[in-house]
Amino acid sequence: MNFSKKNHEYKNKNRSVVSKKITVIFVCAFLSLGLNAQSFIGAWESYHTSENGDKLKSIVIFSEGYQVISTYDSITGKFISTEGGTWKLSGDTMTETAEFDSMHPERVGTEVSFQVFLNDSIMGIVGWDRKFKRIDNGEPGKLNGAWLMSGRVKDGQTQMNDTSRPRKTMKILSGTRFQWIAYNTETKQFMGTGGGTYTTTNSEYTENIEFFSRDDSRVGASLKFEFDLVDGNWHHSGLSSKGDPIYEIWSKRE
Q1: pLDDT tens per residue, range 158-191
Q2: Measured torsion, CA atoms of residues 121, 126, 128, 134, in degrees rounded to the nearest 10
Q3: Cα distances (Å, whole numbers) of residue 51 to 47, 48, 113, 165
Q4: How open is the CA angle 196-90-64, to the nearest 5 degrees?
Q5: Once rounded to an integer, what is the mean pLDDT over residues 201-214?
Q6: Degrees (nearest 5) of the Cα angle 55, 61, 65?
Q7: Nearest CA to 84 among 65, 71, 97, 93?
Q8: Are 71 and 57 in contact (CB under 8 A)?
Q9: Is residue 39 helix, strand or coil?
Q10: 12-49 core/surface letters (b: 16 or more CB in 10 A; e: else)
Q11: What pTM does this model have?
């Protein structure tokens, strides 16, 4: 027998097996890397029809570590529901912990994991028919991220709040979308929310309201404010939706 030839064939076969294994590992790693490299950060939208035939719109906003999804009537702006909290991604598994849920408050504090998919313009949950189309990737907004109401200025006096307390007002922004939510993580109470599109031009911040849980008549209104970033905090002043003067301070969530 030609041991030299047999040994050569064995080495070639072994190299082929190792090569295939490396290829499989590389492809799996590449797919996992691809999902993580394509960021969920930004805003996403989806349209669907209710059982009553109403055309509904759902908006998801992802910032670093925080997310919210809201559904409202795409024609009238009538608010339907909102839920959100923290999120993290491991491979293609997303894990969310609820901080608020307007329809199911008992979910507050619970954690849920599910498999997701993502390409540059479409994302969704595996096994769920509804898909979301990308609106923006966190740009061009100067204020994208999750913020907590941390203080007010009244009569020239600055009053700061403890943002670690259960009662929170969060505002979460993508590059073009905004939403504020008032809630209590201890009592699981949802107090209200509103959202839509926004722009920042120089020192002017403008909100265009598309839904408002407390008063549908505010839908379609545009509110202009002066804003500035001072030591990392967002200073926000102008007139509220009721026409009252406000000066708010918001701190970035970590």
Answers
A1: 999 999 999 999 999 999 999 999 999 999 999 9
A2: -10
A3: 13, 10, 27, 39
A4: 35
A5: 96
A6: 150
A7: 97
A8: yes
A9: coil
A10: eeeeeeeeeeeeeeeeeeeeeeebeeeebbbbbebeee
A11: 0.84
